[in-house]
Fold Amino acid permease.
Amino acid sequence: MSVGNSQPQLKRELGVFGATLMGLGSIIGTGVFVSIGIAAGIAGPAVILAVAIGAIVAIFNGLSSAQLAANHPLSGGSYEYGYKYLTPSFGFTAGWMFLVAKTASAATAALGFAAYLLNILGVNSGWVVPTAFLAVVVMTLIVLNGIRRSNFANIAIVSVTLLSLGFLILVCLPGAIQGGSENFTPFFTGSLADVLHASALMFVAYTGYGRIATLGEEARSPRQTIPKAMIVCLAVTMLLYIAVATVTIGAVGVDVLAGATQQTKAAPLEVVARDVTGVGGALVLAIGAVTAMLGVLLNLILGLSRVLLAMGRRHDAPRFLARLNEQQTTPYWSVIVVGVAIALLVLVGNVKTTWSFSAFSVLIYYAITNLAALKLSSQERLYPRWIAVLGLLSCLFLAFWVESSIWQVGLGLIVAGLIWHKVRQGERVMG
């Protein structure tokens, strides 16, 4: 079943620059400020290798997503590609995995934003939940105003975040050079399994580029805009992550970086900056963390609402979620539902969504993306077929290096989602 021409379409207002920054705003957040510290605790200095492996897997997936989005530029990303090139069950599973993983991630980003902001202001941590709730409300209202205003807000957020990370690299570089290879020896402190586990976690830190695909319906000249934006976005992110991991480990050692993730309400990079420069440097990084979490929250609301829009169009979710505003710039009901869902998770106060669970869900999502890319015709294909093959195999391989309890719960959620999907299909047939 394809989306008919009678469906109202979102306006195309994004160029390469805006689409690239949307991707960067989605990627450079929890990934660089949190997951590098977590992965360093698993793999030691070899986290640098894990960052590179995660980037390579992300590049395969990014290129598959780019050529799918260029040929099928509708909101929904791999949810739409699964339907068009595979089967309804594959399409639904992709959409379901995206919603499950990213709604919790958005709530985590809101709580992270609130914690970092209150640290800067010296306010009691008891205000974390109300502050996070308010952040969700504000970001939801911005998204309700359409992609153009969301784009302007995103550019401001990404700019501040990149400046703070540039500052971190500059202040850590002299210490990293002076320390030489001391903090990188031994390079491998664990097993190959530890490096692969860390690689799976670092892959999650790159997956915001998928937001470019989910916004494909709003990109100008999508066949040119989307691939260019994805390639630039991934190249910039990979270089930034490797630089951050290398200079921070070189300056303070892996124990400080990994240990910082255990500290309450402290971003690992903020702790590194305090260790190197004192309170002033920590403040700069805290500001960067605050803007980064806002960027993640903004872009997740955008991406989640576009997937819900696509699912509403196909009756996989209630039909009212497919409605657009009068200007046809925003799927307003989808945005509201996403905002409410995130806000409810924020009210729980402490979302226990581990990076491992996010990794499994997202790796399954992108496995479906690569499988769909294998179905592209020679006329539609922008890149060699082997890229999709390697993307598919690497996703399935890394997905099962997370803890067994995580992927078992993930598989259970997939089965539960498919049961819902079959019931909905049966209702449509009966109707």
Notes: The radius of gyration is 21 Å. The domain at 16-422 is CATH 1.20.1740.10 (Amino acid/polyamine transporter I). Residues 93 and 414 are 7 Å apart (CA to CA). The mean pLDDT is 82.
